[in-house]
């Protein structure tokens, strides 16, 4: 089982089927609206 986690606030966004335990990072809806100003990483 895999998990998608927000890289900004660490909230769990979704789960997906995978052969091994995997964690992917993305952005949740809350953080996408906050970063519209063009934050740099």
Automatic annotation (TrEMBL):
<dbReference type="InterPro" id="IPR025236">
    <property type="entry name" value="SR1P"/>
</dbReference>
<dbReference type="Pfam" id="PF13790">
    <property type="entry name" value="SR1P"/>
</dbReference>
<protein>
    <submittedName>
        <fullName>GapA-binding peptide SR1P</fullName>
    </submittedName>
</protein>
């Amino acid at each position: 089982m895999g998990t998608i986690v927000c890289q900004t606030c660490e909230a769990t966004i979704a789960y997906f089927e995978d052969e091994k335990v995997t964690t992917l990072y993305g952005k949740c809806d809350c953080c996408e609206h906050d970063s519209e100003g063009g934050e740099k990483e």
